[in-house]
Write a structure and sequence with these properties.
This protein has 4 helices and 4 strands, in the order H-H-E-E-E-E-H-H. It is an alpha+beta fold. 26% of the residues are buried.
């Protein structure tokens, strides 16, 4: 689970330019909570109108992946957040293609379907929100990946 979390966190961090404290559990406690995250589902009705609904990470498994169109989440307050409300993010789903290396929203969907993180838990947690990735192991995995990639060039 931890290695899978590393992969999804790295893609999310890269895509959104997040600091480590914004996606991993640290002393700063700025990490994304599952309860401040929603998946967006857009459906075309028979009358031709589009309806939008929002699904929590713990319940997203009830919706087919192809119906998920975006994700919204809030990075909790940090020192650069004067009003103390956090930083909202909206990310549209982009499928893997020549111009998109990965489907971050789809990866987050898969993660949440498997882990069903409770609202009061970090988004990147498992075992009912009681376990989450270690920063030291994450750094070790990044270094290992860089060494391996470096040896391929």
């Amino acid at each position: 689970m931890e290695r899978w979390a590393f992969a999804v966190m790295a893609k999310t961090a890269f895509t959104c330019l997040l600091r480590v404290s914004e996606y991993m559990v640290t002393k700063a406690k700025h990490y994304i909570l599952a309860g401040s995250t929603t998946f967006e589902r857009r459906q075309l009705t028979q009358s031709g109108k589009t309806t939008i609904s929002f699904i929590s990470p713990a319940l997203v498994f009830t919706v087919p992946k192809q119906e998920i169109t975006a994700i919204d989440y809030n990075v909790r307050s940090a020192k650069n957040d004067q009003p103390g409300v956090g930083h909202p993010f909206h990310m549209e789903r982009v499928l893997v293609s020549e111009s998109a290396a990965f489907d971050v929203v789809g990866d987050l969907y898969d993660w949440c379907c498997a882990t069903k993180p409770p609202d009061n838990a970090p988004l990147f947690s498992w075992s009912a929100g009681t376990k989450w990735p270690s920063i030291s192991k994450f750094n070790q995995a990044l270094k290992e990946t860089a060494r391996t990639a470096g040896s391929l060039w």
